[in-house]
C-alpha cells in the first residue's frame, strides 16, 4: 500500500495534489511519502516479530536522502552503508554509530579508519586482505573492530544479472568452501572481534526459495564454525526482498519472509541482522514529469517527457519496468513509447506499452521510484540534477534542491594555459 491515490480525478501525494508540487517545484521531481515510508518500516519489523533478537539496518544505497534517512532513524532503523559518504550521511541523519553496518567490497584504508573513528557497530569483511588491514588499523590504536565475514554461498537469486550478488562468479564475499579457513585465520588477529558471518545474494527477489537455500547453507556454516571452537553471536542475512513494479508482480510479504526466517534459523541463538532497502523505500516514491510533446512514430507514438534516463536510470541499465500513469487520467488509453530528451536510444521508459492517454503539457508519473531512483541520478547532457520532495500529510518540503547546470559548471575551471 502507498499514499499516492486519485481524489476527484487528480493524483494526490498524501493530502497534496501532485499538480501543486509540479507547479511550485517544477518537473521532473521525485516525491516521497512519509506515511508510506513509516508504514513499510513498521510492516517489515512486524514480519520479523517471531524471529528473536534482530537488528534492522536500512540499505542507504537505495535512498540516501537525509530526510528519508531521518524518517527511518525515527522508526528505530540503523544503516547499512557501502562508502564513507554513506556513513557520514547516516550519522548526519541521526542514526546511531553502533547501529551502522559497513558493507562493500572495496573499503579503502581511509574508509575503514573513518568507521573506527566513528565507532560503528559492525564491518562486513569481503576478503581476508580487508580483514587483515582492518585488524592492523584497529590494533595500532589498541582497539578491536567488530566484524563479520561475508560469505558467497553460490546461490542464484533468480533476479536480474546486474543485481545478483551471491553466485560464485560474483565479486562479493568469500567462497563458502574456503570461509572456515579464512575465518580461522582472521579470528586470531588482535585487532578484530570476529563475531559471525554475513550474506546477501541479490536484490528484487520475487520468491523465497533462493533465500531459504542460502540461509540453510549459512546455518550449516555456523554449525561448522562453532564446531571448530568459534563463538558466533551475529549472522547478517542481508536484504533483497522485491517489490511489485508490474501489476502481475507478487513478491513475498515481510510476514511470509519472517515466517521462513523463523523456521530456518530456529536454534541458531544469534542476533539476526537485516538490511532492507527497496522493500522499505520503493513504493514510497514517485517521479513526476511533464509531457513536452507527442511525436508520431512508425509503430506507435512517442510521448516525449521532460524526465530522462539521467533522472531515472533503472529502465536504461536494467530494462526495468516503472508503471506510467497520468496525473489527471481521462479513462482513455494509448499505445506509446515514453521517452526522454537525452541523446541516447536507451533513454526510454516504456516501449509500445498501453498507458493513460496524455497530451502536450500533461503531467504523468512513474511509480515505485523511491528506491534506486534519485540516488542514481546524474547530469548527463548537462541537465539539472533532479530535486526531491518529502510530503507529510498536507505539507511538503523540498529535501534536495534542483542543482542547475550553471552551479555544476561553476566547479569547473579552464586552466590559464588554455585561455
Automatic annotation (TrEMBL):
The active site is at residue 343. Keywords: Amino-acid biosynthesis, Decarboxylase, Lyase, Lysine biosynthesis, Pyridoxal phosphate. Pyridoxal 5'-phosphate binds at residues 240, 275-278, 372. Transmembrane segments: none annotated. Residues 36-281 form the Orn/DAP/Arg decarboxylase 2 N-terminal domain. Residues 31-370 form the Orn/DAP/Arg decarboxylase 2 C-terminal domain. One of its GO terms (molecular function) is pyridoxal phosphate binding. Belongs to the Orn/Lys/Arg decarboxylase class-II family. LysA subfamily. Specifically catalyzes the decarboxylation of meso-diaminopimelate (meso-DAP) to L-lysine. Homodimer. This is Diaminopimelate decarboxylase.
Amino acid at each position: 500500500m502507498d499514499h499516492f491515490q486519485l481524489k476527484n480525478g487528480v493524483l494526490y501525494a498524501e493530502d497534496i495534489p501532485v499538480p501543486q508540487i509540479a507547479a511550485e517545484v517544477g518537473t521532473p521531481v521525485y516525491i516521497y511519502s512519509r506515511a508510506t515510508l513509516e508504514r513499510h518500516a513498521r510492516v517489515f519489523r512486524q514480519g520479523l516479530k517471531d524471529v528473536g533478537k534482530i537488528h534492522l539496518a536500512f540499505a542507504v544505497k537505495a535512498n540516501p536522502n537525509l530526510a528519508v534517512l531521518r524518517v527511518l532513524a525515527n522508526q528505530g532503523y540503523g544503516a547499512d552503508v557501502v562508502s564513507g559518504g554513506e556513513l557520514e550521511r547516516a550519522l548526519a541523519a541521526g542514526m546511531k554509530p553502533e547501529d551502522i553496518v559497513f558493507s562493500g567490497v572495496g573499503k579503502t584504508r581511509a574508509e575503514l579508519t573513518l568507521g573506527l573513528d566513528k565507532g560503528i557497530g559492525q564491518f562486513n569483511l569481503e576478503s581476508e586482505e580487508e580483514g587483515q588491514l582492518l585488524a592492523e588499523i584497529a590494533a595500532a590504536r589498541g582497539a578491536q573492530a567488530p566484524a563479520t565475514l561475508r560469505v558467497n554461498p553460490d546461490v542464484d537469486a533468480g533476479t536480474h544479472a546486474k543485481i545478483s550478488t551471491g553466485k560464485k562468479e560474483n565479486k562479493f564475499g568469500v567462497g563458502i568452501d574456503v570461509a572456515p579457513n579464512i575465518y580461522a585465520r582472521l579470528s586470531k588477529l588482535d585487532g578484530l572481534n570476529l563475531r559471525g558471518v554475513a550474506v546477501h545474494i541479490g536484490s528484487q527477489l520475487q520468491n523465497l526459495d533462493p533465500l531459504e537455500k542460502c540461509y540453510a547453507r549459512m546455518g550449516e556454516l555456523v554449525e561448522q564454525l562453532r564446531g571448530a571452537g568459534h563463538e558466533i553471536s551475529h549472522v547478517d542475512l542481508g536484504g533483497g526482498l522485491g517489490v511489485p513494479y508490474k501489476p502481475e508482480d507478487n513478491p513475498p510479504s515481510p510476514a511470509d519472509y519472517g515466517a521462513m526466517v523463523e523456521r530456518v534459523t530456529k536454534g541458531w541463538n544469534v542476533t539476526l541482522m537485516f538490511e532492507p532497502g527497496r522493500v522499505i523505500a520503493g513504493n514510497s516514491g514517485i517521479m513526476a514529469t511533464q509531457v513536452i510533446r507527442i511525436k508520431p512514430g512508425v509503430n506507435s507514438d512517442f510521448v516525449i517527457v521532460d524526465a530522462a534516463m539521467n533522472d531515472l536510470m533503472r529502465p536504461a541499465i536494467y530494462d526495468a519496468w516503472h508503471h506510467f500513469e497520468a496525473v489527471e487520467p481521462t479513462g482513455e488509453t494509448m499505445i506509446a513509447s515514453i521517452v526522454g530528451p537525452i541523446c541516447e536510444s536507451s533513454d526510454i521508459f516504456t516501449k509500445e506499452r498501453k498507458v493513460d492517454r496524455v497530451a502536450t503539457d500533461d503531467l504523468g508519473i512513474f511509480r515505485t521510484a523511491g528506491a534506486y531512483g534519485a540516488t542514481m541520478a546524474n547530469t548527463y547532457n548537462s541537465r539539472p540534477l533532479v530535486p526531491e520532495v518529502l510530503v507529510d500529510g498536507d505539507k511538503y518540503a523540498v529535501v534536495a534542491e534542483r542543482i542547475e547546470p550553471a552551479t555544476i559548471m561553476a566547479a569547473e575551471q579552464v586552466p590559464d594555459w588554455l585561455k
